[in-house]
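Standup notes
- DV: blocked on the single-chain target, sequence here:
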Amino acid sequence: MREGRRTVATRVLIIEDDADINQIVATRLERDGYLCTQAFSGSEAKLLLERGLKERAEGKAMGAAFPFDLIISDLMLPGTTGEELVTAIRENGADVPVIVISARTTAADKIDLLRLGADDYLTKPFDLDELAARVEVQLRHRGHTVAASGAKSTLRFREWELDHEARTFTAAGTPVDLTRIEFNIVEMLMRHPKRVFTKQELFEGAWGEPYAADANTVNVHVSNIRTKLKPTGTADYIKTVWGMGFKLVG
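- DV (later): unblocked, structure below
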């Protein structure tokens, strides 16, 4: 289990036994400012939820909150199924929104899950942007202010400025036209300017797909970004960390 490091953020539990899918979802949501906890089996998720429900019950008089603001869960899980987890959550009175992601595509499957207490259903393969949008919708329905989740719409680093919502990027006051992938890479770097990102992390976060084990793909996109930044005099903000990946330098 891996937990994000943000101290104040909307908390999301991701339950998915496919490690690649789990990591891709976590990387995307963390980029959007959410605090992600990852569980890789139904049994692991059950322990986390039971602990949370127990703490909530013991501290109810003091207004204790459920430890997660939203849950994303697969159905076919080792140990405890997604259906059993959803049932347990609702039987214990937790109002946390639950989004199910599954390869099951029939209308009957979706109806059954919604009747059990799931709030939304997304079939695999799914689009990460659509998942992120559905997360926002469910949080708003529960009264969460999504903009306060920890994700900043406008990011600044030295002479760079990036607007996540408007999808615009300027360097030294000059607008720079980036492709979708290039924009995602720059945004990841700017959200964590002190962190070294591996090529795998950049690939999975920017493309929203499992790593293709082709480091040259990431290298080419970073090279294209640097080329576009040269006229602004800020191309050297992106540093290559040999044998590891890339980071920003202040």
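- Follow-up: Helices lie at 19-31, 42-58, 82-91, 107-116, 128-141, 180-191, 199-207, 215-229.
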